[in-house]
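Supplementary Note 2. Why include the ligand at all?

Several targets in our set were suspected to adopt different conformations when bound, so apo predictions alone were not considered sufficient. For every target with a known small-molecule partner we therefore ran a joint prediction. The input for guanosine-5'-triphosphate is given below.
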Amino acid sequence: MTSEPANPPELKATETGEARLPTQWGEFRIHGFEDAHGSEHVALVMGQPDAAPAPLVRVHSECLTGDALFSQRCDCGPQLEAAMKRIGEAGEGVLIYLRQEGRGIGLLNKIRAYGVQDREGADTVEANEALGFAPDARDYGVAAAMLSTLGVERLKLLTNNPQKVLGLEAAGIQVLERLPILAGRNPHNHAYLETKAAKFGHRLDQD
Ligand SMILES: Nc1nc2c(ncn2[C@@H]2O[C@H](COP(=O)(O)OP(=O)(O)OP(=O)(O)O)[C@@H](O)[C@H]2O)c(=O)[nH]1
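The joint prediction is reproduced in token form.
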């Protein structure tokens, strides 16, 4: 018996519309959502995950530099591609794309944090703190609300981040299994990945 989530997911995201989204990994349906702060998020849905006992799900936080601009400072772009490919191969699943850029501090602040890293040799946590931000300001309640709306409350999660598992579970989602997603390691993101493992407990050991 689990206690009630502190923030009921149904209060946190409103679905605004859906449409076809053909991709190189197959056809998804894209669902738009707006959260209580007016931020816009999307879910890509393939197959009938609401009818599956535990569909494959990726909850991906926005990274404009990695997802769209091919940055090698992080592993975000290759992880996004790997997740879409795995859902495509499974023929079923959900990719939640959360607009929580820069672990929730926003694009412009992430670029300032990159500057602190470049100038001072700070790691990603130290750079956030030097600018007065928490190391990770994300909230997975919105993702949980989106998943609940899509009828997916028990799932297998593609992530290396144990905080993501705990965050979703705290918001009422049952994560039956954590599946590693190891992609995009390169010489420019070595320190970034090591900091994730050392300071956030990311599981990168299956690489
Ligand atoms: N503040 C900050 N954010 C960063 C930096 N590098 C990448 N990010 C952000 O980190 C987030 C990474 O998100 P995800 O890939 O969903 O998640 P994760 O916590 O790495 O965990 P995984 O599920 O294992 O990938 C994105 O929002 C990026 O914009 C950085 O140096 N500083």
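The beta strands are 13-23, 26-35, 40-46, 56-61, 93-98, 154-158, 174-179. Residues 76-90 form the longest helix (15 residues). Comparable summaries for the other entries are listed in the accompanying table.
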